Fold Oxidoreductase.
Amino acid sequence: MSQQEMKIAIVGLGGMGDWHRQLIESIDGLTLAGIYDIKEERQEYAREKKVHVYNSFEELLADESVDFCLIATPNDLHKPLAIAAMKAGKHVVSEKPVTLSSADLQEMIDASKETGKLFTVHQNRRWDEDFLTMKKIYKENLLGDVFRIESRVHGSRGIPGDWRQEKEHGGGMVLDWGVHLLDQILLMMEGIKLKKVYSTVTHITNQLVDDGFTTSLLFENGTEVIVEVGTSNFVNLPRWYMLGANGTAIIEDWNLKGEIVSAKGQNEKDVVPVITAAGLTKTMAPRRDDTIAKTELPIVKSDIRDFYRNVMKAIRGEEEIIVKLPEVARVMRLMETVFESAEKKQVIDFE
Ligand code: NAD
C-alpha cells in the first residue's frame, strides 16, 4: 500500500452505511477495512458483499490499519461511538445530525481536541446541485437584492417506520432533514447574522417526534428565509423559490427543473386587467412576454466524492476541512432554537 492510501471502517451498515460502502469503492486511495453492525443480518449482508466484518466495535477499534471511522448508526449513538473511536486513536466522520443537543456536541468537540483527532460530519447536502445553483444565484446577485428565500422538502409518507419515530433515538424531521436545509441556508447567508427565528412543528402522523416543521429566519440584512419540511404533503411546493427586486428563481424538484424570470425593459404601461368572477385586478395580472426575460438556471455541478477527498486531505494536513465544527455547532443551536420557538410559540432572538 502506498503512503497516500487510507483505510476506513464503517460502524452501522444500514441504509446509509451501505450507501457509503458503495461510494468508498469509487474513491481513489481509500479502502474499506471492514464494518461493524450489531445486527446479524447486516453482518451477513456485508459478507455477501465480500466486506470484512469485525466481531465487535472493540475489535474494529483495535485494528491499527484503520485510519478513520464512519459512524452511520441511529442518531443517539453517534456521540458514544465517535468519542470512543477518537479515544482509540481514530479520526471520525459522523453521519448527520451529529448528535441530539449542543451539550452532547460539545463533549464530542472536546474529545476531538483532547485526542487531536479530526472529527467532522457528513453534511453531504452541501454538494446538492440545487443548493449550489441557488447559492450562486444569491451570491452573484442575479436577481438583484434578494428579500426572500424559500427552501422546502415535501413528502407524503410520514416518518419512515423505524427509530426515526422515537425521541430517544433522535428521531423527527428537524434533526433528520432540518439539519441539511438549515446548514445550507447558513452557508448561503455566510457572514450575515441571523437575528430572529419563528417556528412551528407538526405532529400529523406521530405524537412522539415532529413529522415536519416550518421556520421563518430573519437575517440582519433584512432577508427572510422560510425553511420547511413536510411529510404529509400530497402536493409538493417547489424545492427552492427565491425573490429578488429584479427577478425570481425557482427550482421545482430534485431534477433541477426550474428557471429565472426577470424584468426586462421599462415597466409595462396599459396593463390589461384580469377579470375574475367577482372583480378585476391590474396588480396581479400576468406579465406580457416582452417585459420579462426567462433564462436557464446557471447549474453548478458537483461531485459528492469530494467530501471524502477533503476528509483524507484534511487528515494529512494538506487541506482545511470543509465541514467545520463551529458551523456544525451553529446549526445544532439553530435546531434547538426551532424547537424552543415552536414550544413557546414565540419569536426567539438568535444572534
Ligand atoms: P438504518 O436503521 O438503516 O441503519 C442503522 C444501522 O446501525 C443498522 O443496521 C443498525 O443495526 C446499526 N446499529 C445500531 N446500533 C449499532 C451499534 N451500537 N453498533 C453498530 N451498528 C449499530 O438507518 P440509516 O437510515 O442508515 O441512518 C443511519 C444514520 O445515517 C443516521 O444518523 C441518519 O440520520 C444518517 N443518514 C444520513 C443521510 C444523509 O444523506 N446524510 C441519509 C440517510 C441517513
About this structure: The pocket of nicotinamide-adenine-dinucleotide is lined by residues 11-17, 36-39, 42, 57, 72-75, 77, 95-96, 122, 124, 162, 176 (CB under 6 Å).
